[in-house]
């Protein structure tokens, strides 16, 4: 079981953030054996596919360059011409094989871990220059694993080579009796097939190495329970920080709410525990808007601001509690309270007309009817 520097066991699966950070640093599973097998198979396969054409081209080049006319040998101007022609022919002949090797070299690493370009993984690490750390790596489990893989590769390749040579012994001896052109092509074929079989033998090493690399990569990413908790706190925010942010947000919303109270038409109270401020704009239509609400100290502050700005105060405990619990600030009152609030606004309008000397004082409002589903008791519980 993996263990962290703090001594805690790493028993938790890596989080998505841990995997993403590791990938950005270039710390993903890679198998050198898989890359080697890909290049070897591509090289030997390419040699078998293009070897005949390549051998024929090289023989033709040798024939041309060793059978030059006498006038060409005596004129040094032809040396550059023949060199350019030979180089061009050799380049074109080797291109299929070289392109095959290039493709294998690119696809081999991508086969395990996918495409990755991590500049952070390319940065120099001066810690690797520490002799003590170097000695520790030399005698680590990873070094032992690499040594065993190297010995395994040698034994596998040697065993396959012996089997192939024993199998092709008669053909190898027969090459000495063949014409030169045929012997060269035959030799290329034997070398190609022998190399292909030896490369195929390395598939066994890659098949063992890939699961090992995946396991080791996962072990490096395992986390302790404390690391998971710390990462969750960092990503989601520490509780004390989130609490402070929410407190600041409430304070900001409360200050904004207090600045909107002077725009209200009426403040309905409980009379002391609850206070709600309503605003109605007949030009925009719609339902009345709750511009502020609060209990206890906040309710007292709402009443004080209402008095300062000569906003009508109205005591209606049942309606105040109902609006407080059913409506959010800057929201419209529910349809069930339209009738009761309409009576309140009509009463406020009559009060304003009376104060302006354009009407008699209205009769005090009676307790208004509240739908059962919107009724609340003094503790905020549904009374319906």
Description:
By secondary structure, the protein is mostly helical. The protein has helices spanning 16-24, 32-66, 70-73, 77-110, 119-122, 131-138, 141-167, 169-175, 180-221, 225-236, 239-260, 296-308, 317-326, 338-355; strands spanning 266-269, 274-279, 289-295, 312-315. It is elongated, with a radius of gyration of 44 Å. The two termini are 60 Å apart. β1 (266-269) and β2 (274-279) form a beta hairpin. The protein has a four-stranded mixed sheet, sandwiched between helices. It contains 14 helices and four strands. α2 (32-66) packs antiparallel against α4 (77-110), α2 (32-66) runs antiparallel to α9 (180-221) and α7 packs antiparallel against α9 (180-221).
Quick overview of this protein structure:
This protein is mainly alpha-helical and 384 residues long. The protein has helices at residues 16-24, 32-66, 70-73, 77-110, 119-122, 131-138, 141-167, 169-175, 180-221, 225-236, 239-260, 296-308, 317-326, 338-355; strands spanning 266-269, 274-279, 289-295, 312-315.
């Amino acid at each position: 079981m993996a263990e962290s520097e703090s001594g805690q066991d790493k028993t938790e699966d890596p989080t998505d953030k841990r995997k993403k950070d590791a990938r950005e640093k270039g710390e993903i599973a890679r198998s050198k054996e898989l890359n080697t097998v890909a290049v070897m198979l591509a090289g030997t396969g390419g040699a078998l596919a293009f070897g005949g054409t390549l051998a024929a081209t090289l023989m033709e080049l040798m024939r041309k360059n060793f059978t030059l006319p006498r006038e060409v040998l005596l004129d040094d101007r032809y040396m550059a011409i023949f060199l350019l022609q030979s180089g061009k022919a050799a380049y074109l002949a080797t291109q299929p094989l070289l392109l095959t090797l290039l493709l294998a070299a690119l696809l081999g690493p991508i086969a395990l871990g996918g495409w990755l370009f991590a500049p952070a993984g390319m940065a120099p690490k001066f810690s690797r220059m520490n002799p003590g750390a170097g000695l520790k790596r030399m005698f680590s489990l990873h070094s032992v694993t690499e040594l065993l893989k190297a010995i395994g590769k040698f034994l596998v390749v040697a065993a396959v080579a012996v089997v192939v040579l024993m199998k092709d012994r008669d053909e190898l001896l027969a090459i000495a009796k063949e014409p030169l052109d045929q012997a060269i092509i035959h030799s290329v074929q034997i070398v190609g097939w022998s190399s292909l079989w030896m490369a195929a033998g390395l598939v066994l090493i890659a098949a063992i190495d890939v699961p090992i690399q995946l396991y080791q990569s996962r072990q490096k990413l395992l986390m302790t329970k404390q690391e998971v908790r710390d990462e969750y706190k960092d990503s989601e925010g520490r509780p004390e920080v989130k609490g402070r942010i929410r407190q600041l947000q409430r304070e900001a919303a409360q200050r904004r709410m207090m600045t909107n109270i002077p725009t209200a038409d009426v403040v309905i109270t409980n009379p002391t525990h609850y206070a709600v401020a309503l605003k109605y704009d007949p030009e925009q239509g719609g339902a009345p808007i709750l511009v502020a609400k609060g209990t206890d100290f906040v309710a007292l502050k709402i009443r004080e601001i209402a008095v300062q700005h000569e906003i009508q105060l109205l005591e209606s405990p049942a309606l105040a509690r109902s609006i407080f619990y059913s409506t959010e600030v800057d929201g419209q009152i529910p349809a069930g309270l339209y009738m009761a609030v309409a009576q309140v606004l009509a009463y406020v309008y009559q009060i304003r007309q009376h104060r302006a000397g354009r009407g008699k004082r209205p009769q005090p409002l009676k307790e208004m009817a509240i739908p059962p589903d919107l009724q609340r008791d003094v503790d905020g519980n549904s009374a319906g």
